[in-house]
């Protein structure tokens, strides 16, 4: 039997109406819709097209030209303004191209429907159909508009800066910016000082993310299992106490810990370490011990939220499964590895991945504890700087905007790739349609 034998026969009612003609006429927006006898719709599209060309053509043309040159006269032309106008022009041009393509597709689709006998609706019915089909888009449009100009525009500005020579010694409006291609990325991986700093900071960022996040998750799971045990009394009080560190603002906790870990007058050295060992630990002045302190602080700050998640999941696991496991002779480890752990991970894996991604960019604790210090000889970042805090220092302290932008692009790519790959590996993603 031929492959198309099971396909229903499509009967063309109006052979004279040609979808190709409708698409070709739509090269001038609205004309294809008029060919389809949708006169109000065609007139509206043509007016919008003509208004956009009349109002925005000059802005887009000048913006794209400025994006190429980034200015011509130092002190008079500000390259940052040229860059901003150029990015806005690209955004508006993208809107226009999308509108133009959709106009052609719409005309061709309506023409095909007319061929098959579809009756063109009157004005009132057309408005009703447009409202019914477009209602979800009308709701998300304001949010999309804000997203474009609050998130996408600054993001594009940062991306473009990574390909310029914008730094402390070449700053507009005194100087004009120039496009330098991938020179900033080449410097990052070829110049010894930049290369060593980048790989040292990247390795510490990965270690920090994995160790601190895994410890807070492990501690939260351990405490949640203990508190969930039927033999434990006063569960409500214990859960409240464990969630208290989450209730206190994080920056307050970090500042308090910064004082507690102080090398000279901190209570940890003065009251605990020195009486036991005779000398204090250089928590603030030695990079290794500063990293240990940061991991301990983050474990303390991060476990309450995960503990609350795990507590809710553990209470939702049916007791019948554990009873069935007892009948089968399973020990505690087998019940944990085959019942408790899989269910907890299935329910919370996406949120746990976000914990890793959040700690990868956890600027607050690094900066508030000791501003990324202590300094390291031969390195343009502090001993405990992670990528995001290093980018902050390059931007606001050293005005190395081009290098900060280049590192930010790499940072963003790492987070996106990591989150994408691990989301796809989770059972909650693979079995989403089966829930």
From TrEMBL:
<keyword id="KW-0762">Sugar transport</keyword>
<feature type="transmembrane region" description="Helical">
    <location>
        <begin position="240"/>
        <end position="261"/>
    </location>
</feature>
<comment type="function">
    <text>Part of the ABC transporter complex MalEFGK involved in maltose/maltodextrin import. Probably responsible for the translocation of the substrate across the membrane.</text>
</comment>
<feature type="transmembrane region" description="Helical">
    <location>
        <begin position="288"/>
        <end position="310"/>
    </location>
</feature>
<dbReference type="Pfam" id="PF18935">
    <property type="entry name" value="DUF5683"/>
</dbReference>
<dbReference type="InterPro" id="IPR035906">
    <property type="entry name" value="MetI-like_sf"/>
</dbReference>
<dbReference type="GO" id="GO:0042956">
    <property type="term" value="P:maltodextrin transmembrane transport"/>
</dbReference>
<keyword id="KW-1003">Cell membrane</keyword>
<feature type="domain" description="ABC transmembrane type-1">
    <location>
        <begin position="202"/>
        <end position="422"/>
    </location>
</feature>
<dbReference type="GO" id="GO:1990060">
    <property type="term" value="C:maltose transport complex"/>
</dbReference>
<keyword id="KW-0812">Transmembrane</keyword>
<dbReference type="Pfam" id="PF00528">
    <property type="entry name" value="BPD_transp_1"/>
</dbReference>
<feature type="transmembrane region" description="Helical">
    <location>
        <begin position="206"/>
        <end position="228"/>
    </location>
</feature>
<keyword id="KW-0472">Membrane</keyword>
<dbReference type="GO" id="GO:0015423">
    <property type="term" value="F:ABC-type maltose transporter activity"/>
</dbReference>
<feature type="transmembrane region" description="Helical">
    <location>
        <begin position="401"/>
        <end position="423"/>
    </location>
</feature>
<feature type="transmembrane region" description="Helical">
    <location>
        <begin position="81"/>
        <end position="105"/>
    </location>
</feature>
<feature type="transmembrane region" description="Helical">
    <location>
        <begin position="339"/>
        <end position="358"/>
    </location>
</feature>
<feature type="transmembrane region" description="Helical">
    <location>
        <begin position="137"/>
        <end position="163"/>
    </location>
</feature>
<keyword id="KW-0813">Transport</keyword>
<protein>
    <recommendedName>
        <fullName>Maltose/maltodextrin transport system permease protein</fullName>
    </recommendedName>
</protein>
<dbReference type="InterPro" id="IPR043738">
    <property type="entry name" value="DUF5683"/>
</dbReference>
<comment type="similarity">
    <text>Belongs to the binding-protein-dependent transport system permease family. MalFG subfamily.</text>
</comment>
<dbReference type="InterPro" id="IPR000515">
    <property type="entry name" value="MetI-like"/>
</dbReference>
<keyword id="KW-1133">Transmembrane helix</keyword>
<feature type="transmembrane region" description="Helical">
    <location>
        <begin position="43"/>
        <end position="61"/>
    </location>
</feature>
């Amino acid at each position: 039997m031929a492959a198309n034998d099971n396909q229903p026969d499509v009967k063309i009612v109006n052979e004279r109406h040609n979808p190709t003609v409708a698409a070709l006429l739509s090269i001038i927006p609205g004309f294809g819709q008029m060919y389809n006898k949708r006169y109000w719709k065609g007139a509206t599209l043509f007016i919008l097209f003509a208004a956009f060309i009349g109002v925005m053509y000059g802005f887009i043309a000048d913006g794209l030209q400025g994006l190429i040159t980034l200015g011509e006269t130092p002190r008079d032309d500000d390259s940052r303004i040229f860059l901003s106008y150029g990015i806005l022009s690209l955004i508006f041009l993208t809107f226009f191209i999308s509108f133009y393509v959709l106009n052609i597709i719409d005309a061709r689709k309506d023409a095909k429907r007319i061929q098959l006998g579809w009756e063109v609706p009157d004005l009132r019915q057309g408005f009703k159909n447009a409202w019914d089909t477009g209602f979800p888009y009308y709701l998300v449009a304001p949010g999309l508009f804000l997203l474009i100009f609050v998130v996408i525009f600054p993001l594009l500005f940062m991306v473009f800066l990574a390909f310029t020579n914008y730094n402390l010694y070449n700053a507009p409006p005194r100087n004009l910016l120039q496009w330098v291609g991938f020179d900033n990325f080449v410097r990052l991986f070829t110049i010894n000082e930049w290369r060593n700093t980048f790989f040292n900071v990247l390795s510490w960022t990965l270690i920090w993310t994995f160790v601190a996040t895994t410890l807070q998750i492990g501690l939260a799971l351990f405490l949640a299992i203990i508190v969930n045990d039927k033999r434990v009394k006063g569960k409500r009080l214990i859960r409240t106490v464990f969630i208290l560190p989450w209730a206190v603002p994080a920056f307050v906790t970090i500042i308090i810990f910064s004082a507690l870990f102080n090398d000279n007058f901190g209570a940890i050295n003065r009251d605990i370490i020195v009486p036991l060992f005779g000398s204090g630990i250089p928590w603030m002045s030695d990079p290794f011990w500063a990293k240990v302190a940061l991991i301990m602080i983050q474990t303390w700050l991060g476990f309450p939220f995960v503990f609350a998640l795990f507590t809710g999941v553990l209470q939702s696991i049916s007791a019948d499964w554990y009873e069935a496991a007892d009948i089968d002779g399973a020990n505690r480890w087998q019940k944990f590895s085959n019942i408790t752990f899989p269910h907890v991970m299935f329910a919370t894996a996406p949120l746990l991945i976000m914990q890793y991604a959040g700690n990868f960019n956890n600027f607050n604790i690094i900066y508030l504890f000791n501003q990324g210090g202590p300094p390291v000889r031969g390195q343009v970042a502090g001993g405990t700087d992670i990528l995001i805090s290093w980018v902050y220092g390059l931007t606001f302290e050293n005005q190395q905007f081009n290098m900060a932008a280049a590192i930010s692009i790499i940072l963003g790519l790492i987070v996106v790739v990591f989150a994408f790959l691990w989301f796809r590996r989770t059972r909650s993603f693979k079995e989403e349609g089966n829930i």
